[in-house]
Amino acid sequence: MRIILGVGGGIAAYKAALLLRLFTEAGHDVTVVPTEAALRFVGAATWEALSGHSVSATVFDDLDKVNHVRLGHEADLIVVAPATADLLARAATGQAGDLLTNTLLMARGPVLFAPAMHTEMWQHPATAANVALLRSRGVTVLEPASGRLTGPDSGPGRLPEPEDIFAAAQALTAAAEPAKLAWRTVTVTAGGTREPIDPVRFLGNRSSGKQGVALARAALDAGARVRLVAAHMDVPAPAGVELISVGTALELREATLAAARDSDAVIMAAAVADFRPAELSATKIKKRDDAADPVITLARNPDILQELVAARNAEGRRQGIVGFAAETGDERGDVLSYARGKLERKGCDLLVVNEVGHDKGFGTDLNDVLILSRSGDEPQAVHGSKAEVAAAVVARLARELDAL
């Protein structure tokens, strides 16, 4: 893959050398395009030695190669790290004052920015507007990490670690590759089930459905026919899916088992309630001062993921099954240990696990997951937007299906 690594003029430019090494060790052909300011932090000799290509910041070098047009046209991916506030502003407004901004204007493939700047710069309304504008155009702008900055201050604005940028780039290119799931049928479940207590109340969870919708969209982008079995969601279903709306865990079970019969893959991203009220009150349970507090007895809901695996195995289907696990650690184990145990019990091909809490996972636009495989491969860490996570999961699922 041909990658352009743009380097902005910030102290974090030295970390881009580590990112460059990750790309080249993965077999990619990388051309570094720094800004003039970036060359004051890391010189051209370093970039040329690590990349094997000549380095320039101006459109006036190698005029016979027309680099300001050629580089953007030929690139499969452009990654800019660090992306300073100034560089984000110039990219958002379409300026073309140097080789990097010209290359960005000519880009026809995916573009990823990894910002790095002081907290006040990142949080300034002008930067926020520039980032929003770039994202609205389909450009990926990572959230900066939080931590120690150049001086004694700390906060959001630190360049993400090179390994995290590399993982985000992998996910982005996976999303850009065409038709991984052409001629495949994929069933995706999404949202949170609601288990009624009475005509007014229910037991539910905090799932927004965003990750499931992102998975359905990623499967569509990969060429699949997609069925979306949707419980309660805060976001609309993507255009192009066959939508099956459900409410409770039992309804979701019935719809998913039926849809799975002729599906090449099932992605169980819905947050399915583990329990439901054993009895449903026909009338609203009243709160009376002269009555005792009500006691609600719970019944266990069926394990849909295990049923899917059992049905597939019994019928000998060549079918990929992906489970999701929203986990919290406790004094008996961490998130990863619980996830490994769940993967073994469920028997699915892939298990996507993320740590959840009051400010993690549910309802947010970002996600941080590990993809575990029944084949025993090392867990794959993916951090980024839910669209980026979905692209990585779909790409991994496509490889699993190809191996069946």
Compact overview of the structure:
The chain is an alpha/beta fold and 404 residues long. It has 2 domains: 2-176, Flavin prenyltransferase-like (Rossmann fold), CATH 3.40.50; 185-403, CoaB-like (Rossmann fold, 3-Layer(aba) Sandwich), CATH 3.40.50.
Describe the fold and architecture.
With 404 residues, the chain is α/β, with parallel strands linked by helices. The chain folds into 2 domains: 2-176, 3-Layer(aba) Sandwich (Rossmann fold), CATH 3.40.50; 185-403, CoaB-like (Rossmann fold, 3-Layer(aba) Sandwich), CATH 3.40.50. Helices cover 35% and strands 23% of the residues. The protein has helices at residues 13-25, 44-51, 67-74, 85-92, 99-106, 119-123, 125-136, 162-176, 210-221, 249-260, 304-315, 335-346, 386-403, and strands spanning 2-7, 29-34, 77-83, 111-115, 140-141, 145-148, 154-158, 185-190, 195-196, 202-203, 225-230, 242-245, 265-268, 275-277, 298-300, 320-327, 350-355, 366-373, 380-385. The protein has an 8-stranded mixed β-sheet with strand order 12-11-8-13-16-17-18-19, with helices on both faces. β1, α1 (13-25) and β2 (29-34) form a beta-alpha-beta unit. α1 (13-25) packs parallel to α2 (44-51), α4 packs across α7 and α8 (162-176) crosses α13. The radius of gyration is 24 Å and the shape is elongated. The model has no long low-confidence stretch (mean pLDDT 89).
